[in-house]
Amino acid sequence: MRTLLASLVVLGLLAAVPLWVESPYGLHVMILIFLAVIQGESWNVLGGYAGQYSVGHAAYFGMGAYVTTMLLQFKQVAPWYGVWVAVAAAVALGAAIGAITFRLRGPYFVLASIATAEIVRLITLNWKEFTNGAEGILLSEVPPFSIGGRVLTDFSTKAPFYWIGLGLAALTIAANWWVQHSKLGYYLQAIREDQDAAHSLGIPLARYKNYALAISAFFTAFAGALYGLYVGFVDTAVQTVEVSVQIVLVCIIGGIGTILGPVVGALVLVPLAEALRANLVAEALFKLGVEETSRTGLFLKENLAHAHLLIYGILVVVVILYMPEGVVGFVRRLLRRRPAARPAAGGKAA
Amino acid sequence: MNQLQQCAVDLPQSLISGVLQGGAFALVGIGLTLIFGVMRIINFAHGDFLMVGMYLTWFAFNLLGIDPFLSLVLTLPLMFLLGAVVQKVFINRVLNALPQNQILLTIGIGLVLSNLAMMFFTSDYRILSTSYSSSSVKVAGLSISVPLLLSFLVTAAITAALYLFLLKTDTGQAIRATAQDRDAAQLMGINVKRMSLLATGLGVALAGAAGALISPTYYIYPQVGGAFTLKSFVVVVLGGMGSIIGATLGGVVVGVTESVAASCVSSGVKEIFVFVLFLLVLLFRPAGLLGKSRM
Known about the structure:
Distance between the termini of chain B: 45 Å
Helix content of chain B: over 70%
Radius of gyration of chain B: 19 Å
Strand order of the largest sheet of chain B: 1-2
Order of helices and strands of chain A: HHHHHHEEEHHHHEHHHHHH
Shape of chain A: globular
Largest sheet of chain A: 2 strands, antiparallel
Radius of gyration of chain A: 21 Å
Largest sheet of chain B: 2 strands, antiparallel
Oligomer: heterodimer
Strand order of the largest sheet of chain A: 1-4
Number of strands of chain B: 2
Number of strands of chain A: 4
Structural class of chain A: mainly alpha
Shape of chain B: globular
């Protein structure tokens, strides 16, 4: 109850942000964080609770982005209708991929999830008449959203995207909470801990893995649709293995199988990438005494802006070696070791 | 019908090119299978090691003027060292971790390698052009590319040497014993840590060697590894995880599939055929085409 109340307060505060934050860049970073939260929490349902480490979630993300964008650009279908087609397509794709990959276990499942997502990407890339191939699709405009003739927003600012992102992120987190506390969640965790034991207790493995994947693909496709509309451009870069890996990293770094994990992961990774991109890190290093005009300084200035994947790589290695339960698990263990230091109830509930 | 007829006419040519291409794929796959066999870890950074091998070869050629095929004497030991260091510093510490975490660790190592390469060498495509890069010989009406032929012969030699090493020497047998049963091998007095070090070193060296061998015919860029990582999984799964003969066969099957699909359908979709084949084998012959998995 206290958690719910605190979550609602946090949600309310976050919803009010665009009313007094004018900086489009600030909102932009927040939207990217929301996208990462939706992706990470969606992946968490399948990877975290059911223990099925899919490295092919870019397929569902891409499906959401492509179908919504194509319906809008080629058929003039408004995105708030189109997105349902996109999401249905992603869930159907998930059912097909699940039918193939869920017979496999451990590393073989990981490999198959990559292979299926790559097949989807290659089809998108080569089906030029349908998808525009490597050129991608450039959206001309997002139509204004109206109810009963009254225009609510024309998407001319970042604020509507912010609210949609926040709403979807909250929904995805709520879905995780529901999964964790439902029979479905217990079944999934049983499958994660020991497939054979779960099977012998009468849990239909394939069916429940498919349920988890359906939920996961559903929300991932929403993230894809939002991304496509927000960026206004979609190409096969949204379907690459790199995207799948980044989705997994959000969870790994935050903490797998926890509700808070993907949120923490997104809060670490996205601002880090943005700080690098805006050269804030290089400037901080200069203030700390690195000579800006020296060879090292010039090298840093030139390269740190594109270094976010390098830093992600280092982070994941460090996390796997030193805190395999992610930041959330690590902090929890620290707190448990020193019971005197009690966590604050309010700020940690989102 | 026209394209189908054309591709039937071209079939012998596609087959020979595919087999020659497959040699390098086999070498990457053997490296992966060796690491998997001894440590049960799937190395997702494998293609990135191949990328490092390509850059080493490029620099050896452009700075020192060493021919890519001769530069193997330099690339192999350097890559072995790199593999041994990665084993000692990282992989050794996750041997008992969850398989997912092992995979993520190697994904992280791969990200670091490819992005370091981008930092230091930029994302420009580099070409290593030797005097024989585009030359070919005609045999019975078929044209055979000289660099591909050379790389195939060197691959065959390396594979044979590795096979003899694993089969005939004490160290080789110790590696195989570790692959068969780590605990039993340890009880027999085999230093399994040392065998793991050797296996990763060798595996990474083979990926580097493959990089050296294909560098006269491929673009060299920091992200080239990703495609090869995937391809090496396919090669290894086709042949059965942990089997060296299987990986050799798998390499050739992948090479031939790609070149026939490229000539009969289009080069854009050749990889779809490889991945579909991969999934079919995973589902229906999980132990690989040869049916048993052993080293």
